[in-house]
Design a protein that fits this description.
Helices cover 49% and strands 19% of the residues. By secondary structure, the protein is of the alpha+beta class. The chain has a domain of 77 residues. A hairpin with a 4-residue loop joins strand 1 and strand 2. The longest helix has 20 residues. Bound molecules: zinc ion.
C-alpha cells in the first residue's frame, strides 16, 4: 500500500486552479512581448497578443492568498486572464507567493495559546 498525504488526496485541482492552468497555456501560445515591471507601482505592463494594447497586472491579497488582478475586460469581470497568468508564472512572482505563504504560516503559528483561545470568545 502506498501512503498518500491526506491533504493531497482530499484536494484535487479545483476549478480556479484549472482556470489558471488554462490561462497560462494560452499565455504561452499567444504572448509575443515580455511584460515590463514597474517597481514604483508594483505592477506589470502586459502587451496583448499583437502588442496593440497593454494591460496592467497587479499582485493583490485576497482571503490571505496572494493573487493577481488585471485591468482587461476579462479581469474586470473577475475571470482569470492570460495576462495575469503570465505574471503569476514569473519566477520572481512564484518566490513572492512562497514568501507570502511562509509569512502567513508563521503568523498562524504565532497565534497559539491564549491569543487563539481569546479569539474564540470575541
Ligand atoms: Zn487580463
Amino acid at each position: 500500500m502506498v501512503a498518500t498525504s491526506p491533504i493531497m488526496s482530499k484536494s484535487p485541482i479545483n476549478a480556479r486552479q484549472q482556470a489558471w492552468i488554462r490561462a497560462l497555456d494560452r499565455a504561452r501560445l499567444v504572448s509575443t512581448h515580455k511584460p515590463t515591471y514597474s517597481p514604483s507601482r508594483d505592477s506589470y505592463r502586459v502587451y496583448s497578443a499583437h502588442a496593440e494594447k497593454e494591460y496592467h497586472v497587479y499582485p493583490v491579497e485576497l482571503d490571505g492568498h496572494l493573487t493577481y488582478e488585471c485591468d482587461c475586460k476579462a479581469g474586470e469581470r473577475g475571470l482569470v486572464c492570460w495576462h495575469a497568468a503570465l505574471i503569476a508564472a514569473l519566477p520572481g512572482e512564484c518566490s513572492r507567493r512562497a514568501r507570502h505563504r511562509e509569512a502567513q504560516r508563521q503568523a498562524v503559528n504565532a497565534k497559539s495559546g491564549h491569543a487563539l483561545l481569546m479569539e474564540c470568545f470575541e
